[in-house]
Structures are given as C-alpha cells and as structure tokens.
Amino acid sequence: MTVQPPKPSSHAVITGQWEPSTTDRAAGRVPGFGVITNIVNGGIECGHGHDNCVADRIGFYKRYCNIFGIGYGGNLDCYKQSPFA
Asked: Which of 2, 18, 24, 74 fits a disulfide with 29 by CB distance 3.0 to 4.6 angstroms?
C-alpha cells in the first residue's frame, strides 16, 4: 500500500493509478503483474531471464484469477525488467 521510492505502491499498480515514467518504460517496467513482482522482489527475481520463482508466482496469480473469474491482464513476468534502483 505504501510507496517506497523509487518503487510505486503495488496498490497503485493494481488499481491502474500508476503511470510509468520514461525511465520505467525504458527499463521494461510497465503496468501488470510483472511489475508487482518487481516491486516485491525485483532485485532477486527480475531482469535475468526466466526464473522459477517468478514462474511459480505467475501460476499462483493465474490460479486465483481463475477462482475469482477475472482476467490476468498483460505483462505477467519481469524476466526482462530492470529492478527498481
């Protein structure tokens, strides 16, 4: 819920309130579940290609989206996103 600069809050991303900066877009950080992973654990899981932890997190996310009958949206992974500084 709380912004931790330079990271936006996960809440702002989920609710569509976050607008990525030019720097964010250049780093591959665009709205979607992938940037949530980047906010939470980007320094470990993002920016180095396929990561099993990220793949598992996406699987859990999809499972709960299916249970609630909602779409996944785009940008599910952070494989090519640079972590927030």
From this structure: 24
